[in-house]
Each structure stands twice: as C-alpha cells, then as structure tokens.
Specification:
Length: 87
C-alpha cells in the first residue's frame, strides 16, 4: 500500500503521483490542506516533516518527491513494492 500526503497546487505532489501512476501504482491520497487531522497524522508519522508530499510505502516513511526518486534510483523502491531484489 502506498500512501501520500498532499495539498492543492503542489507541483511535487503532482509529480510524485504521476511517477507512481506511470509505474502502474496507485496511492491513497490524504489532503492535509482539507483535513487538519491528516496534517497532524502526517507530522507524527514523518517525524515532524512539514513539506508535502510525504510518501509511505507499506507503512515505511520514504520522504518527499526527491526521496522517492532516490529510492527508485537505488533499486530500493522495487524491493519495497515487491518487484525485485535490492541491488
């Protein structure tokens, strides 16, 4: 399961969602600008990180969009998604 905390008019949120969609993955999206409880939840789960997106895969905190790309580049994303072995 992929979870992504977002807000409106966030270009990095859109990039992260597009990146996942292009790989055939969908995410549960939580809009922190519409739901203050989700913002509090995001802050707790991410260790206080306030920027969006904040991405979680199988409950593990990945970070933001740049972190998602780094995770993909290292091969770790495929492992987290159950697609292959870690490099």
């Amino acid at each position: 399961m992929i979870e992504i905390y977002t807000k409106a008019q966030c270009p990095y949120c859109e990039l992260a969602k597009r990146f996942l969609k292009e790989r055939g993955r969908s995410a549960i999206e939580y809009r922190v600008d519409l739901d203050p409880a989700r913002l509090s939840e995001m802050l707790e789960r991410s260790g206080g990180r306030r920027t969006v997106p904040q991405i979680f895969i199988r409950g593990e905190h990945i970070g933001g969009y740049d972190d998602l790309l780094a995770c993909h580049g290292s091969g770790r994303l495929a492992v987290l998604l159950g697609e292959g072995d870690e490099r």
